[in-house]
């Protein structure tokens, strides 16, 4: 096993706390040799954490990817609408690319990136991390084994968590669809991808409903203020209080995302001046806080998906109904129950791994590095290759279109790609 070198484009939350953290934890596997990041403070942190000299720190991806390849791979962890151009340039320079999800909120860019990976014979792996978890891998194994017969219907629920909803999709970077992506694409493309992978058939049509129901100005309680730090009369009993979530939390799970400096003074300044101190009812957000999606796949297989920002925890539950049996599971608890018809049901052992997304974050990087070492660059290779990821993106696009058209059914049209086709 030889060390893989990487350039990191975007040193924000995912760039630093997932990919950068992996390089620090497993230096024999991955070394970050250059970083592109517009925020000067983050560049300074990157210089210290990855031991980079000033000539390996860049204010933009254009500077980093200007002329020649300087590492084995490129990790692109920029915002959703900043994926296309650096990905195409990195592929053209000869990098294998690990790309944050979603690929892009533009369907032509999604197709273009998938085609470019084939054209340049480079790996382009999308961070659909759930496929790399022990939980979902075991469920896929049970389906493939035939224990439940032919899959007839699947129900999947994503419980976003009230605090995650407030942090990321009301106050945070993904609160406005025109600046990033619709909720079904940004947050729930993981779920569209898992459904596509488990069912393993083309999705033909979709209908969807959802809205921004709660986090609106008219729902602001009497006595509330623009910011939680402005003397809000209801702050102490508000579950969405920024002071409670960021300053008084037992861990820094969310605090680390609002200030590069974790000191109490820096956190309080971030709440007074930055977006994360705002009242959740007085933000400029417009993405939905709940949504349901119904899908029909080939051969009459159906699936339903529910996303809600109103849950006490962050979790996913699934029910898979087949002709010979049923599977029920809860990802966060690592619980999978198998019920073969006519037999006693049983619990299926599955490990619960530490780390983000049930071990999927580390699993993604680990498998990508293996693919790079083995030079698996044939079209469609890689568990979450760009080609494999196109269908889930098209499903998300169709779901959002249906939601905006009052739930009207949307057909998913086939889109041809170089080296193959997908829908």
TrEMBL record:
Residues 6-128 form the Gfo/Idh/MocA-like oxidoreductase N-terminal domain. It comes from the Bacteria. Pfam families: GFO_IDH_MocA, GFO_IDH_MocA_C. Residues 140-336 form the Gfo/Idh/MocA-like oxidoreductase C-terminal domain. One of its GO terms (molecular function) is nucleotide binding. Belongs to the Gfo/Idh/MocA family. PANTHER family: BILIVERDIN REDUCTASE A, BINDING ROSSMANN FOLD OXIDOREDUCTASE, PUTATIVE (AFU_ORTHOLOGUE AFUA_4G00560)-RELATED. This is Oxidoreductase family protein. It comes from Cohnella phaseoli. The lineage of its organism: Bacteria, Bacillati, Bacillota, Bacilli, Bacillales.
């Amino acid at each position: 096993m030889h060390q893989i070198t990487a350039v990191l484009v975007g040193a924000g939350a995912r760039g630093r706390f997932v990919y950068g953290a992996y390089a620090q934890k497993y230096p024999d596997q991955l070394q970050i040799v250059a970083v592109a990041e517009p925020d000067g403070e983050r560049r300074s942190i990157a210089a210290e954490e990855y031991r980079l000299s000033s000539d390996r720190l860049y204010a933009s991806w254009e500077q980093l990817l200007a002329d020649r390849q300087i590492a084995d791979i490129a990790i692109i962890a920029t915002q959703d609408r900043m994926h296309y151009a650096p990905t195409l340039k990195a592929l053209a320079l000869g990098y294998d690319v690990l790309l944050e999800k979603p690929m892009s909120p533009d369907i032509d860019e999604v197709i273009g990136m998938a085609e470019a990976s084939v054209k340049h014979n480079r790996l382009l792996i999308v961070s659909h991390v759930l496929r790399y978890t022990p939980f979902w891998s075991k469920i896929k194994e049970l389906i493939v084994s035939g224990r439940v017969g032919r899959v007839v219907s699947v129900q999947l629920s994503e419980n976003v968590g009230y605090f995650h909803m407030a942090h990321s999709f009301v106050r945070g970077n993904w609160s406005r669809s025109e600046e990033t992506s619709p909720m079904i694409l940004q947050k729930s493309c993981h779920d569209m991808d898992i459904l596509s992978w488990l069912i393993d058939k083309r999705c033909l049509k979709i209908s969807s409903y959802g809205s921004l129901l709660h986090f609106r100005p008219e729902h602001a309680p009497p006595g509330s203020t623009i910011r939680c730090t402005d003397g809000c009369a209801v702050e102490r009993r508000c579950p969405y209080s920024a002071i409670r979530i960021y300053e008084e939390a037992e861990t820094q799970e969310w605090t680390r995302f609002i200030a590069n400096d974790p000191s109490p003074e820096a956190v309080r300044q971030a709440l007074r001046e930055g977006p994360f101190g705002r009242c959740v009812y007085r933000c400029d957000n417009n993405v939905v806080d709940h949504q349901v999606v119904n899908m029909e796949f080939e051969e009459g297989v159906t699936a339903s998906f529910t996303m809600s920002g109103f849950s006490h925890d962050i979790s996913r539950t699934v029910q898979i109904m087949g002709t010979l049996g049923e599977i029920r599971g809860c990802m966060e608890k690592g619980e999978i129950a198998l019920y073969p018809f006519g037999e006693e049901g049983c619990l299926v052992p599955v490990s619960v791994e530490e780390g983000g997304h049930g071990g999927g974050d580390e699993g993604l990087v680990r498998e990508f590095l293996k693919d790079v070492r083995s030079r698996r660059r044939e079209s469609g290779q890689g568990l979450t290759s760009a080609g494999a990821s196109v269908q889930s993106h098209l499903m998300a696009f169709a779901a959002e279109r249906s939601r905006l058209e009052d739930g009207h059914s949307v057909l998913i049209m086939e889109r041809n790609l170089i080296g193959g086709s997908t829908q």
